[in-house]
Task: structure prediction
Amino acid sequence: MKRVVIYVVLLAFSLNVAGQDKIKWHSIEEAVQLAGKAPRVLVIDVYTDWCGWCKRMDATTFSDPEVVEMMNKHFYPVKLNAEGKEDVIIGNRTFKFVDNGRRGYHEIAAIVTKGRLSYPTISYLDAHGKVLEAAPGYKTADQFKVYLAFYAEGAYKNQSFDEFSDALGEGEKSVIQNL
Result:
């Protein structure tokens, strides 16, 4: 009996710890609602099911412990399938899938990527839904942490990303670790 209790306690603990090692992804509708109540930048991972670099980013970048912590602490993370067929309703507007030949795309994906539908693209939106940036391409955890620091600190309000990343230089780790 003692072993069973210990096993159950260890299992519950491991499940709790494992749950903290993952990004808490939201739908875009949920993230917009949350941002309306407690403003934060939305970080939207625009992906497709067939995208190899998207899967690699999931397996590497989005599983990095520092990335997980930064995303959950400072942002509303969103997973958005660019080819998803379900309607997205934000406020009184409905965004739909657009059938476009062999594949097609979702209207909301075209908006948050500023019309550049390449995958993966990470889009950053302010709490009011304004697209701040759409950064296409695979990012390593270290590259992505610089973007997260840029938006978490609010540096995007008064300087460009290039200015911010150039200024980090050697001090990059200390800035990121303090977030």
Observations:
- The longest strand covers residues 41-47.
- The chain has a mean pLDDT of 87.
